[in-house]
Design a protein that fits this description.
EC 5.1.99.6; 21 strands; Ribokinase-like; alpha/beta; binds ligand LP7C6HRI; 39% helix; isomerase; 2 domains; binds potassium ion
Amino acid sequence: MSYAKDVNIGENESLYMLKIPHPYYLCSAEQSRFMDEKTITEFGIDGFTLMEIAGTRAADFIMSEIPANSHGVFFCGKGNNGGDALVIARLLSQQDFNITVCFLSGTEDLSPDADKNFRLLQKLETDIQVLKWEDFTPEDYDFIADGMLGTGLNTEVRALYSDAIEYINKQKAPVFSLDVPTGLNADTGQIMGSAVQSDFTLSFGALKIGFYLNEGFDTAGEVILCELSFPNKYKNPASYLIDEEWVDANSPSREKKKHKYDGGVLYIIAGSEGLTGAAVLAAKSAWSTGLGAVVLITPKGLLEVYEKQLVQIIKKPIGDHDDVYFKESHLADVLEVLKEKPGKLLIGPGIGRHEETIRFTQKLLTAFEGDSLIDADALFALSKWENWDIPDSSDLILTPHPGELKSLLNKELSNDHERMEAVITFAKQNGLTILSKGMPSIVGTESGVPYLTGYDTRVFSRAGFGDVLAGKTGAFWLKYSSAELACFQALLNGYKGSKQYFATNSGSLEPMDII
Ligand SMILES: NC(=O)C1=CN([C@@H]2O[C@H](COP(=O)(O)OP(=O)(O)OC[C@H]3O[C@@H](n4cnc5c(N)ncnc54)[C@H](O)[C@@H]3O)[C@@H](O)[C@H]2O)[C@H](O)CC1
Ligand SMILES: [K+]
């Protein structure tokens, strides 16, 4: 796509640059205001024109959803968010919609562009009903437009606004929020006292990051981007949305990477007595990507389990017949296996938390001079390790769930915005990639750029999905050589699998359903 931005995905991976189309840029309210202001003052498209474009795009979308002759009520604040609503009200009234406009803070104190649009509205010959919230009498409206507050929200919503929000949230009619659902913090996704529960959020100029954090996902409804005329040079996103289209476009084809992919082995150190299921799921999901060789390294006492369940997978038993978890005494033999062929290591699913296993894990990570994906119980071992001593030449992917992340950082994270900030800092400071599982899942990178999932990840919260994700991430890491792309592909693979499953099934999803 011609309007793509180059993003360097990290020094070690500077082989290629990620091309991410603008629809997947996520901005803060501040960045949104910055683009708006620069376009007006420096580039030279005035705010009134931007408002007309925003309103026109939004009106087109509403008309694609709502039949003409419908009756809509437009709730307007006194800022530019209200101005957007007034443009839409004017345009729809010209298309035979029946329009009621309701002002939350009167009409005396409107922003200059909102005021100009109010005057234009009054010039029309169409019959538009204008009133104040104090005089508002509920009717059966066919749809509701929320133009009360946008990126200008700066505190908890005040009275009158909160009353209107309460009214709107009780209605069955579809709600279109302009730019941001009123009451939602566009940066953190937190609800500022109360917020409009939208069916559609028509986001102007760029998607807001808050739609994907905390309560944002359940508040914003379906998000539609209405592009504005911001020059690309003013676009400086806070984050990016992980999307199939751009991820696939950035993933080198198998043919091109054939030598690397076919040459690499995914070594999996997983499983212990009572937790063999984790090893089975990780190995099966890695194998299902089409990877040439998956090697499961296991304590010898568990070999029988895997011989039955993992027919295609190469098994390397270590230690004695009665060993059912990894011990320090296994270290030399495991390192020998890891030297057999070039590849990457996935360590952690189901290895348990025995003292000896923790020491084994720490010593192995010190001695192994290769790339490692550290998951589950191996993350626990990492969090019990004051000063990690892992070779600088080893690239790392960490895949913690929220609890594991807290132990790793030794820090309380009270919400997803805090989690994102912590992931950004940790990945950058330690020069590694983190796939922080949760809703949203957040990929933190060496370069400091975070990437967010934009779909509902809650279906993956049951036991076993983490093992599947780890197996796929490890396999895609070999396939694409990029830690970031591996995380994106593994996340999207689960999403696609769940969509396929729910297309023909109902009820709950099992980890095996997405392998
Ligand atoms: N993205 C863009 O570039 C464009 C955005 N447009 C629209 O403009 C708004 C932002 O407009 P702004 O005037 O800055 O702010 P708001 O309309 O969101 O609100 C400001 C208004 O609200 C009062 N206020 C703030 N907090 C509260 C509160 N908690 N309770 C009650 N009232 C509050 C404040 O005092 C102000 O008076 C953006 O979202 C877009 O919709 C352009 O139209 C196109 C370009
Ligand atoms: K709004």
